[in-house]
Structure formats: structure tokens, C-alpha cells
Specification:
single chain; mainly alpha; elongated
Length: 110
């Protein structure tokens, strides 16, 4: 459930134009899913929040730095998904490995 949630949250950056609105919409949903499925809410909400804030790389309009880069006219709109899909997928995998290995060692229970 963690892997699916991370990929859904990460790739919803295509639909949402900002991280604030996305976090306001998704964190309550993530917490509800954790409560229903019996998973520790921290185990879902923390990586979901980190992915929402840290990796909006799929389109240029997700963050102001992306807009600045796009404004230089050195990159095109289609360049963002080319790099963003790879980086976002790797981020989801890294967070999943961290949740499944490091968190139990740190005392966070799933």
C-alpha cells in the first residue's frame, strides 16, 4: 500500500498546479487510507508529504523554480516530463526502501 500511495501522490503533480493545494487535498486522504488499512499513519503521511513538497518535477508550473527555468527558453515543456518521470520514479523507490528498512531500525512501526 505504501508503494502504490507514493506513486499516486507523486504523479498527481501532473494535475495539481501547486504543492500547497496538493498537500491540503492529499494528506487527509492518506491519513484516512492509513486508518482504514491499519497502517501507521506516519508511515504513509510522512513520505507522501515529502514527495509532495520535494519532487514536483513533472511540469514547469508546479513550482516557482521550475517556472524560472522554463522562462529561460533553454528548455521546452516536453523536457520536464522526460526527466521528471525518471527522477520521480527513483524518488518513490528510494522513499519506499527507506520506509521499509530504515524506519523499523529507527523505531517507527508500520
Amino acid at each position: 500500500i505504501i508503494i502504490a500511495m507514493l506513486f499516486i501522490v507523486q504523479f498527481m503533480h501532473i494535475v495539481y498546479t501547486g504543492t500547497t493545494g496538493m498537500s491540503n487535498a492529499f494528506i487527509p486522504i492518506v491519513l484516512s487510507i492509513a486508518a482504514v488499512s491499519g497502517v501507521n499513519p506516519i508511515a504513509l503521511a510522512m513520505p507522501a508529504g515529502m514527495l509532495i513538497a520535494a519532487y514536483p518535477l513533472l511540469t514547469f508550473y508546479n513550482t516557482n523554480p521550475n517556472q524560472l527555468v522554463y522562462g529561460t527558453e533553454m528548455v521546452e515543456f516536453n523536457d520536464f516530463p522526460k526527466v521528471g518521470i525518471i527522477v520521480c520514479t527513483l524518488a518513490c523507490l528510494v522513499y519506499t526502501v527507506c520506509v521499509l528498512t530504515y524506519w523499523p531500525m529507527a523505531g517507527l512501526q508500520m
